[in-house]
Design goal:
Keywords: Membrane, Transmembrane, Transmembrane helix. The chain crosses the membrane at residues 33-52, 72-93, 99-123. This is DUF5658 family protein. The protein has one domain (27-124). It has four helices and no strands. It has helices at residues 28-54, 61-70, 72-92, 100-124. Helix 2 (61-70) crosses helix 3 (72-92) and helix 3 packs antiparallel against helix 4 (100-124). The protein is globular and about 45 Å long. The protein starts with 27 loop residues before the first helix and ends with a helix.
């Protein structure tokens, strides 16, 4: 019997169910931007939720109407819908324009996080 890694079962191979599996085919800056999209999405949701708990209101009229009608789950749904549209659009773009979609999602969501945090400073300060 050999102890060579090539003969061991699939424990060494990449598991397609890993969290990073969707990013496996993406390299460099685009991967970094998609990770930033995830961080920005979570950051925007968390800071929005906390702001609503402080008594602040959502400034986006579509999101505000969805929040009023369906609660905070609507905000999560809107973000996931935007993410799905972005992923779908990214598949249609050639690789040389691949950075546009994650940048187009990450920049406004990171901006929303900064705005929300600055509102906290005003309200709580």
């Amino acid at each position: 019997m050999s102890s060579d890694r090539l003969h061991w079962p699939s424990a060494i191979r990449e598991d397609p169910r890993r969290l990073t599996a969707p990013l496996a085919g993406i390299d460099g800056w685009e991967r970094t931007l998609w990770i930033l999209v995830g961080v920005a999405l979570v950051g925007d949701l968390l800071t929005t939720y906390y702001g609503l708990q402080l008594g602040l209101t959502e400034s986006n009229p579509v999101a505000r109407a969805a929040l009023d009608r369906f609660g905070f789950a609507a905000m999560v749904g809107l973000k996931l819908f935007a993410l799905a549209v972005g992923v779908g659009c990214r598949r249609l773009l050639p690789d040389e324009h691949g950075l546009l979609v994650p940048a187009g999602l990450a920049v406004p969501w990171m901006g929303a996080v900064v705005v929300n945090l600055s509102l906290y400073a005003i309200v709580l300060g």
